[in-house]
Amino acid sequence: MTYLKDRKISRRALLAGSGAAAAGLGAAALVGCGDDDDDAPAPAATQAAATEAAATEAAATEAAATEAAATEAAATEAAEAAATEAPAAGGPQTGGTLRGSAPTFIWNTGFPYSFTWENEPYFSVLEPLVRYRDSLDPFPVLAERFEYNDDRSKLTVTLKPDLEFHDGSPVTTDDVFHGIEVMLDPEPWGITGVFQISSFAAALTRWEAVDSRTMEFEFDKPRPNMTDFFAQLLVTKKDTYRELQEGTNIQGTGPFAFEQWTPDVGASFVANRGWHQSAVEGGPYVDRIELQNFPDAESLGLALEAGDIDWSLGVAPSVARRTGQGFLAPKAGIVYVGCVTNSPKLVDPRVRQALLYAIDRRRMTEELREGFGDLTAQPWPSSSPAFDPDLESELYEPDRSRAILDEAGWSQDEPLMIEPIPGTEVTAEILKSNFADIGVDVEIVTQEIGAWVGKLRQRGFVDLWVAPHKFSNLSPLTTMQQTFPYRMGNPSYYETETYLDIIANLERLDPLGEEAREQYARFNRMWLEDPWLLPVHTNQRIEVANANVKGYDEHFVTIFEQPNLAKVWLEG
Description:
Elements: H1 11-31, H2 44-53, H3 65-83, E1 97-101, E2 130-132, E3 138-140, E4 143-148, E5 154-159, H4 173-184, H5 198-202, E6 204-209, E7 214-219, H6 227-230, H7 241-245, E8 256-262, E9 266-271, H8 278-281, E10 288-292, H9 297-306, E11 311-312, H10 317-323, E12 326-328, E13 334-339, H11 349-358, H12 361-369, H13 398-408, E14 416-420, H14 425-437, E15 442-444, H15 449-458, E16 464-468, H16 476-482, H17 497-506, H18 514-529, E17 533-538, E18 542-545, E19 549-550, E20 569-570
Parallel strand pairs: 1-10, 1-11, 14-15, 14-16
Antiparallel strand pairs: 2-3, 4-5, 5-7, 6-7, 8-9, 9-10, 11-18, 12-18, 13-16, 13-17, 19-20
Helix pairs in contact: 1-2, 2-15, 9-10, 11-13, 17-18
């Protein structure tokens, strides 16, 4: 449920919310620890700098594929039968052109194996072997069979028969292997960017074709969260990869086929009427998709209001509020305050706990996000097996904070330093006010993005910092292993025996099993009792679709922030 404010917001807060989304969170999501999606378009220079600095990786979880395949087969049979009947009154209409916005595309950073927000529209062109829909159960896409051995150190995958790329050529095992090979050896392709899932590619010790459709993958050790890798490994045609890097030929298997891309102008796609998933998923309904680049949030908002475009992949909160058609993409992480746990001022966990309860999350959501977002005190979305309904709350108790500080004997001779990633300065100002209310003095230290990223990577923060992270929609183990603020060697110097034990246990457990859920509960208790990351508000992209666009807000293709444009249809 999305919380919407009902009190007036000051002009300063309105501008701050827009600025944080359009500038800081763009860069922050890139460098800030685990993702490079964004809540709204960021300046190209900022995104380029952040992309170069980013070094986060992701992946996670798995489940039985035979059951999923059976589910798909049943759904296919039912859908094929229904497809022979006339469309129900008021149902999806076929035809028309969906006009949208998108930032300038970046081709030679390792796409589609390196994830940048600029390229997300292409997730309707390209598909993985399996995907997560509303949970971490893998749903078959290109895979007919997706089966681990008992200890999850080996995976067997069989492609569906007769799969074709949009140009009619067959999908082969070599096309799947191509992505792995690019990640492990990007130099021949001139790629200098960072692959967020490359650590999982590095965990592969063998990949081999057993026959024309069947592949075997072996890992360096049991990997219970390896499905995260395959759910994100998009498949494109190996033989046309050079053309993809030039933006001239993007071959995929999805509901829309690439038509053309014009630098600084936009791109277009056409419906793939032979889509192999149509009987299961429905669609595609629109004939074409046309994407236009906009130089800034204001011009984008004006185009939406004028009806010049129908939807936008991501907008600033102020634009969403102004158009009245805003809604949220699936939650993928949070904006947080990081604590350096070996700082003399923060070494006592009670001090960090007091700061946790001092943050006014309702105010943050109102003033920074125009009310778009759930009030939350956890990184986990509801699709995660680690999700705790009790943590979907404000967790704002300043009286409790003061009592905890009194118990800890809190005093300070100098202020705590808080270092926000550029674009989140207003967040830091509200935090400073919150902390002052409980008797904690804070000094805000600003810096340019390169210096900030250097401190993140080198663990150089003094006391506190502000940033967003994503990828908490994957396996919790992946978040703990690979996302910057959580993994070992994190900027907080947080490596307690309890935390290490939780990770060690999860490395041998089915991520959806009851034993794993016990470990998630341990983590969530630790999250409150010995905090090192203090949740501020959700990190969710805000979408806008005008009234004539149907289905867009209901059907995200995955628990990632990727819309299923095959489900979208135009009314009238």
